[in-house]
Amino acid sequence: MTTTGFDPKDLLAHSSLGILATLKADGAPQLSPVQPYYDREAEVVLVSTTAGRAKARNLGRDPRAALEVTSGDGLSWATAEGTVELTGPGSDPRGPEVDALVDYYRRAAGEHPDWDEYRAAMVSERRVLISLRVSRVYGESAG
């Protein structure tokens, strides 16, 4: 349900913390707090994680996911559902997998003080970029 005047895509676009839901092998939900970046034009949510995390393993097996964000006052929420593509981990700090993570960081947080250090960390941490292709967005506002 969407309340008149409330656009859940606006809340998605302005949220820096959300809960990503993936599916465990037994079909049970697995929830993870994440720092999402929502590209409204491309209809994609970007999230960084490490290759060994449950969410990355779950998405490698079943690409369906949902992201929920809530307003600071708790009166509004928005959910984006879709399927995921995983990029990485990369082995080359100048490779395309790490470039994708650099792009995510710039969109989500701005410029990094030391891009060489960031790139090296993305390789050593075995970082993966989650790209959630949004097929449905919905939400509600009590305000």
UniProtKB/TrEMBL annotation:
Residues of the Pyridoxamine 5'-phosphate oxidase N-terminal domain: 9-138
Cellular component GO terms held in the UniProt record: cytosol
InterPro entries assigned: F420-binding_dom_put, F420H2_bilvrd_red/Heme_oxyg, Pyridox_Oxase_N, Split_barrel_FMN-bd
Name of this protein: Pyridoxamine 5'-phosphate oxidase-related FMN-binding
Matching Pfam families: PNPOx_N (PF01243)
Keywords: Oxidoreductase
Claim: Nuclease is one of the keywords in the record: no
GO function terms (MF aspect): coenzyme F420 binding; oxidoreductase activity, acting on the CH-CH group of donors
Organism: Actinosynnema mirum (strain ATCC 29888 / DSM 43827 / JCM 3225 / NBRC 14064 / NCIMB 13271 / NRRL B-12336 / IMRU 3971 / 101)
